[in-house]
Design brief:
Blueprint: H1 2-16, H2 24-31, H3 35-46, H4 50-68, H5 73-79, H6 85-96, H7 100-106, H8 120-128, E1 135-139, E2 142-151, H9 159-172, E3 179-186, E4 192-198, E5 211-215, E6 218-226, H10 232-246, E7 253-259, E8 265-271
Helix pairs in contact: 1-2, 1-8, 4-6, 8-10
Amino acid sequence: MREVDAIYNAVRYVEKHLRDDITIGDMANAANYSLYHFCRLFNRITRFTPYEYLVRRRIDVAAEELRNSNKKIIEIAFDLQFNSPESFIRAFRRVYKSAPGVWKKQLGDDQEQSMPAFEKEYLYYVCNNVSLKPKHVKLGSLELYGILYPVKEGFNPNGKGRIEQFLDECKTYNLLVNDVFGVRILTKLKNYYLFIGAEIKEPFPENTPFVKKMVNENNYIRIAHKGAFETLRFLYQYEKYCRILEMWKPWSYCIEKYNLKKSGTIELFVPVKI
């Protein structure tokens, strides 16, 4: 798709010139678009303005250098084209909620607010998924029975296999389920768990491997995913970028709803305060 290729050319240009004095016009030239049409296109596909994206990428590179080098803050600021230490500190504080020096000492391993460069595959994903627009919804309480798995990271590409395993267990005990839910849990110690389960109304047999998980009624942001399970990681990238733009608080859990009747349809529910 020509539009995605154009935006990706601009993204690659930014990555090559983060330490150079570039303009939004330079990004537009890299995309081979007029400045007006480039800004509209970039925002429509990524939800960021080109300037927001450029500053965010510079701030994230700065955070990485604060974490992994002994460079002085003023050196990092000027190297990444900030006009003064004060402007750099203000921009850094808007992203990481603390001054660079404080962040380096206390939160240097926290990458919750980091924003890596856009991948080409990700840009294709968001451009082709018109159903991604977040919606505020209220979800009632859920009483789920299922299996809890420890995972190494927030998105576990083996989630599809976990669902199949859960459904096989349901068949073993003659349990009928409609929709399957996944609850991704992040503990205070930054440990991730994936709970796969379903609402089971019929009498529950004994000696099953299932545990009970209650999810209270709450307000959520709902984002719908349509596509292969393997591309679900892009949905979580999209959710993270939305969270950065809208300043949603990081989640300690989120819910995935897998529609077994419509293959490839997954709804993500992220808890928010309205």
